[in-house]
Amino acid sequence: MRLHDTTVEASAPRWQRRKDARPSEILAAALETFVEHGYAATKLEDVAKRAGVTKGTLYIYFESKEALFKAVVLENVVPILATAEQLAGDRAADPELLLRRLVTVWWEAMGPSGLGGLPKLVISEATNFPELAQFWYDEVVRRGRQIFAQVLRRGMEQGAFRTVDVDLAVRMILAPVLMAAIWNHSFLACEKEAFPVEQFLAASIDIFLRGVAAPPAGGGEARHA
């Protein structure tokens, strides 16, 4: 395509662009609106206006607000999990380095973007919308836990980690990431100094890995294993 054609398309109103661009624009607008207003307060007409389409056009692609929310998760969050699953599947990778990498990948993909506001949204509205909470749990939480559990079990099998309760250990390693995401979309504006998320997560994973590290050769199993 010539530069002139590209410039025209980029400057054209959203509703004049090719039809196959509309779903992605609607999803981007929906993510912004959900995070900004919450699920209950989000109106489809507001999403449509932000996306530059009519409400009728939005309904062509998404039959309801619930379907729109699920599409946001499936199109934006699930691919991050797929990437993490590929990383976790590398049996030649050092388990400790892999856990560090998985935390980093998750935060870099979720934290700085609007996606980081979704955990807070789901937690805050789980009681009123249990079906959405169950969807998030099945598609994101359960799958994410399985990824970290896989690496932890492999580390124990290889002797890099001591024997621990895998379910509890996974909850512990994910808790700081969840806390950082919620904090960024709640109390961050109240703090006078910026929250050093990267340093916080690095310190958290350091402490975690010290806790699950296998004892030195000949040192025996830790007393509280």
Along the chain, the helix and strand elements come as: HHHHHHHHHHH
Strand content: under 5%
Overall morphology = elongated
- SS class: mainly alpha
Provide a descriptive summary of the structure in words.
With about 220 residues, the protein is mainly alpha-helical. The chain contains eleven helices and no strands. The protein has two domains: about 5-65, Arc Repressor Mutant, subunit A (Orthogonal Bundle), CATH 1.10.10.60; about 75-210, Tetracycline Repressor, domain 2, CATH 1.10.357.10. Helix content is about 65%, strand content about 0%.
Which descriptors apply to this entry?
single chain; 225 residues; 11 helices; Tetracycline Repressor, domain 2; Arc Repressor Mutant, subunit A; mainly alpha
Question: Can you give me a brief rundown of this structure?
Answer:
The chain is mainly α and 225 residues long. It is 67% helix and 0% strand.
